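hiii so my PI (J.) wants the whole complex modelled not just the main chain, which honestly fair. so below is everything: two entries, each one labled with what it is. i double checked the lines twice but i was tired so who knows lol
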Amino acid sequence: MHRRDALRSLTGLLGAAVAIPSWAQAWTPSALEEPKLLGSTQKKVLTGMVDAILPKTDTPGAAELGVQRFVELMVQDCYEGPQRDLLKDGLDRLEAEAKNSKGKSFADLKGTERLELIQKWASGPDKSNRDFTQLVKDLTIHGYVNSEYVMTHITKYELVPARYLGCVPV
Amino acid sequence: MDNFDTIHFNINGKEKNTFDAIVIGSGISGGWSAKELTEKGLKTLLLERGRNVEHIKDYPTTNMMPWEFDHRERLPLDVIKENPIVSKCYNFKESAAHFFVKDKEHPYVQEKPFDWIRGYQVGGKSLLWARQTQRWSKYDFEGPARDGFAVEWPISYDDIAPWYSHVERFAGISGNKDGLDILPDGDFLPPHELNCVEQYFSKKVADHYKGNRHIIIGRCAHITQPQPIHLEQGRAKCQHRVICERGCPFGGYFASNSSTIPWAMKTGNLTLKTDSIVHSIIYDDKKGKAVGVRVIDAKTQATTDYFAKIIFVNASALNTNLILLNSKSRRFPNGLGNDSGVLGKYVAFHNYRAGISGTFEGYLDKKTEGRRPNGGYIPRFRNVYKQETDFLRGYAAGFSAGRGTVSDRSGWGADLKNGLFQDKYGPWYVGSHMMGETIPKETNYVALDPELKDPFGMPQLRIHVEYDDNDDKMVKDYIEQMTEMFEMAGFTNIRTRDDHRNPGLDIHEMGGVRMGKNPKTSILNKWNQVHAAPNVFVTDGACMTSTSTQNPSLTYMALSARAANYAVEELKRKNL
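here's the output for the full assembly
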């Protein structure tokens, strides 16, 4: 969190809507503490899921924004035991499913193939598969929508709106 | 520890422990007591049980962006499990949890369920409050006498009106001059806007109920147009960030930290001691007066005595009760000033159980822009001029409308991305929450536990406060009336709730050291002086004889300023 001090002094106490400088946009997830809930294969599967759920288009995808770290951290810190097990078991079983049906690790499949497997589970008969894919989807959306890139470039969050207008045209 | 013969030796430096005035507590009311007393030239010791929080310097999260919070402001499960009580509070989140008291550190006994939400640091809960500030009217002060509950207030609206103006001007209160006798106008800075749906609802309600019910813009402690006095305080215009609970680097809203305490410091007459827990007020039986306070150092547990001619107790409502109950002497074996036996009794709070929400398909061509640290307000309309319903008193309510863009989460992949960010707007959402007056009763009380102590050696407080029949009827009426108003206005998807939350979560607990005309049935007189110990003043929530419906902090500030000025005059007249 030390890099934020420099950033904070830049945006300053006057809090004008200063654009985030370009060096801060190169924020890499490696600068932050890694969550410890998942093993290395599970992390790869989760990254593959996050990337398939919100892939790169003309805007960055969720995986390149590091949303998989957010998903893992949230489940590790803010969710109960059953949800944590749901995530871990789900990732293990999804990896097994990829090997069985496509002959490859989940992370090595193409984006469309990964999404196909996820969607099959999301609308399938198995409740824990549906719950698992929904958990990952919800947290992926949450992490993506609240990411620095999206809030800066797409939804244009203002820390300092400095105004409230009660009735303006849409 | 009831040794009334303890001689308070303070051989080394009694001089340096002696002040003109002592103020217990640096929260929203204590900051005012300190400001007024120091401005009038009194050397004042301000004792704060918690740590220092210096304006701007000690607001660690105030400039953080949403993505900088690891859990996007949600709290880790282990924090929530460690703090089952305070984690019920809407403001106990990753960005502001450091300003709240943690359950384990400050235990108390719930004889009946009570969620006691506290902030122990310089500034207290003035860092965290919702900043809603309405004046009481004469109908509120006259309530107990007219309706036959509690005891008659010893003051009237006319007594406090000039002091409301006094604190409003300094604090910076924004509001609209609505001209309502039930909610007097104040010394206002320009009001915030009601949005189009709020204005629509306001007009519909005014027409339908023939001017007997009102939706107005909230009166709030935000600087919308800085006056010279605010600039002199080093405070600027509110920037509408609406992350006030983190502390505001602009001083845009009123908190002791940005306003009254630095002002008191500037006089050169203030000594601020943090980590100083007041154990009791020292009553000298020989002299027949209170002479000072005994303080426990929060870190070392060492005790020190401080002395002063006048003492202001602003420790927050229930802690003020605790201190007075714990202040035993030969004269007052049952707690300071407790000749009447009512100390700790007639504790009340605000009924926040009910709420209502809905949607509105009108004004679809309009939206809002920016953010607003405020909302609409519905002044009490029940039993105002006479008793009309099957319950006593009534409720005020918040009312707000808002609208956001449509977000479709049903897709996957690129479709999902497109669904999440759309330029389309959804319907307007409308909502209201209830703020009901509760009737103070002898059976709602706080008391000292005879055995249990907290980690600082203070007796734990036993809290026995619960809802009654009147509260249940009031909830029913709020739900019925608001549903009727919502339906009349064409709101749909109406949902109501009675969440049966515990008393306390309103964070408007009051009473126990009530003001009254008769020393046989009250503790304080019309100047907030303890009847039997006139150099001790209580001006925080503990002094409240009844609760009415208004957010109470503005009234605490006005009472503190009024009492402090009276105390100084009494000192000059050599009556104290």
